[in-house]
């Protein structure tokens, strides 16, 4: 009886050990979804390149499709602080034609140390530049005009130098406003993929 008990206990331990090893191998094969590198990525001397995508959608009532993309590049002038520029590119396709949007917006971004973790950072951004579009259907339209705004965002690092971002944007522009010459303010969401390239002294 004692031998049967010992054999049963030995088989249970062996089975548990094999199961744990299989579970560990499965965990190792999962796609990487996070990386503890946020502090290294936002160092002085690093570069930021990437793009954000926003305003994607189809309005069934007006039969209009909208798509905006914003490629960007920046340089960390100090830890947590980036100065750079982005291009605003967008298109609206509707029944009877299409219109293109364009712009160049220098920006300043700051990653907050408060609430930071090794895998993510919150940040704020301010931008100021010029924008316009191909629409010329109103006397009040401005072909090229000032655009400025602020963003609040969250960067989650999924690899050593790669982060997925989400931003809430408050942008004001007077480009192509067809009611008088007033400006319009828009609140929008965007998602992006940013690559953090180490500077020469940070490699």
From TrEMBL:
Keywords: Signal. Residues 1-20 form the signal peptide. This is Outer membrane protein beta-barrel domain-containing protein. The lineage of its organism: Bacteria, Pseudomonadati, Bacteroidota, Cytophagia, Cytophagales.
């Amino acid at each position: 009886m004692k031998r049967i008990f010992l054999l049963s206990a030995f088989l249970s331990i062996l089975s548990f050990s094999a199961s744990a090893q299989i579970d560990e191998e499965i965990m190792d094969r999962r796609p990487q979804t996070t990386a503890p590198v946020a502090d290294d990525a936002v160092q002085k001397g690093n570069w930021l390149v990437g793009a954000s995508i926003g305003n994607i959608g189809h309005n069934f009532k007006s039969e209009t499709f909208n798509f905006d993309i914003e490629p960007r590049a920046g340089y960390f002038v100090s830890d947590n602080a980036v100065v750079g520029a982005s291009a605003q590119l967008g298109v609206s396709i509707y029944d009877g034609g299409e219109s293109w949007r364009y712009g160049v917006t220098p920006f300043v971004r700051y990653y907050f140390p408060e609430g930071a973790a090794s895998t993510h950072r919150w940040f704020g951004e301010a931008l100021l530049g010029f924008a316009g579009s191909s629409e010329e259907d109103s006397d009040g339209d401005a072909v090229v005009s000032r655009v400025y705004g602020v963003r609040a965002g969250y960067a989650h690092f999924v690899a050593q130098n790669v982060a997925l971002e989400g931003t809430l944007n408050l942008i004001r522009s007077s480009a192509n406003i067809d009611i008088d010459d007033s400006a319009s303010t828009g609140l929008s969401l965007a998602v992006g993929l940013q690559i953090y390239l180490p500077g020469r002294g940070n490699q």
